[in-house]
Structure formats: structure tokens, C-alpha cells
Hints:
Blueprint: H1 16-20, E1 25-29, H2 35-48, E2 53-57, H3 67-82, E3 88-92, H4 106-125, E4 131-135, H5 138-142, H6 148-156, E5 163-167, H7 173-178, E6 181-184
Parallel strand pairs: 1-5, 1-6, 2-3, 2-4, 4-5
InterPro entries: CblAdoTrfase_CobA, P-loop_NTPase
Organism: Mycolicibacterium tokaiense
GO biological process, one term: cobalamin biosynthetic process
Amino acid sequence: MPQGVPAVVPRDGLTTRARRNTPVLAVHTGPGKGKSTAAFGMALRAWNSGLSVAVFQFVKSAKWKVGEEAAFRRLGELHEQHGVGAPVEWHKMGSGWSWTRKQGDEADHADAAADGWTEIARRLAAEQHDFYVLDEFTYPLKWGWVDTAEVVDTLTRRPGMQHVVITGRDAPAALVEAADLVTEMAKVKHPMDAGRKGQKGIEW
Length: 204
């Protein structure tokens, strides 16, 4: 796609404007670093364009301090106080989704993941947000906590102009097939290969 021009334009009867204004389902997968980072970069563009953003983190503990979370919460406050950008919501698992406050072991977290997906599906049906980040959502799918077929069906039938980005390793084949944009991150080198631990400003 040199200069953003498609190599092939399908004969689907749609105008250029109609084809451009189509909701995107993106998947960032693969063993390399940067899947979530790329998703949050897209979310930042969405916020700047006035699209409401909702982030749902499926594996991060509620106790972990995530730099992007702090930044997006500030952006949400900026919108509330000055009307800049768009609304932002951030929900994460661990000690529980922010609307259920569940606590417990892995079985409880599996239930929380299922509850989380149910809530996301409800919001998609209601067209509650413009841009969704389902961070590390491939893991609940891989582990069988959430049914992949149901997720694919819900996402492909979602109404309106709702963009969805899903991150995580080992994305199911059915999800990859359904997506409009799939990027596979491949690791070439990583500081941990040399025994270096994650550091502030790089990993969180």
C-alpha cells in the first residue's frame, strides 16, 4: 500500500467514502514485544479524533501500575474538564473488574473473564463506545475461559462504527480469519535475553 493507496479496489458497489467508513477489527498477536503498545497507540489516535475509548485488560492484575492507564485516565479527565478528545474508560482483571469487584483464584478469574466478555458484548450491542482495546484477550480464548466462536460472531455482527483491537499471543485462527487487520509481532532481540529485567518507562 504505497502512500496509503490500496493495491486492489474491490468491485463491491461501495463508494470510497463508504469503504473507508467501515469499522475495523484488528488483532495484534505473535511472540514479540509491542502488541499492547501498538493498540494503545491506536487508541491515542482514536481519542484525539474524538472517538470514545474503552480499555479492558484481561490478564493484568488490578494491583499492577500500568503507565498507559495513568496517561489515559488523565486524558479522560482532560475531556471531562475541557472537552478535549473524548471519554475514556479503563477496566482490568486481577482483583476484579471495576464493575463487579470480584476477588479470588484462577477459577474466579476465569469467571471474571467470562463476565467481562458478557459486559463487552452488552456494550457493543448498545454501541456504547467507539474504540475498544481488549488487551491480552487472546489468553482467555486460548484457555477456554471465553468461547471463541461466540466472540467472533459477536464481533462480526457488531452494529455501527465500533473499532475493536485485540492483543495477545496465539490468537485463534477463527479470530484471525474474521479480523480486518492482523499484525504478528516477531521477536528478533529482547533485553531479557541478556538477563536484563523490565524497566520503568519501557515495560510499564
